[in-house]
Amino acid sequence: MVGMIREPITLTALETITRTEVEKYIPISYTSSYYALLDDAQKLYAVVSVPHLPRPWPSRIVVMAQVVGDKVIIIEDITDKPLVDALMVNGGVPRDKIILAYAGETVPAV
Fold this sequence. Notes:
The longest helix has 13 residues, at 11-23. By secondary structure, this protein is of the alpha+beta class. Helices cover 18% and strands 32% of the residues. The chain is elongated. A five-stranded mixed β-sheet has the order 1-2-3-4-5, with helices on one face. The chain is built from two helices and five strands; from the N terminus they run H-E-E-E-E-H-E. It has a single domain, classed as TATA-Binding Protein, CATH 3.30.310.
């Protein structure tokens, strides 16, 4: 079997894929409101959970990723369906283009 050769993902495509996949982390919830924070200028994409009043727990970042150069840096991910998997399976992003900063992987100097 011959290995498949993939075309490199462009920077614009990487940004679009990251933004799209992060947005999918907004669930339906009866206990919290979820908001997508999408900053195309900084290429920073996140979903935040804000519990309904009275707040039994603090607001928190559910997932956050930033495109830096030709890499996606996943800053935070507290989900049971990791963003890294969504980026690879749904978006076709190679694992070597993803850095799991929340798991201690080294983030390159900018």
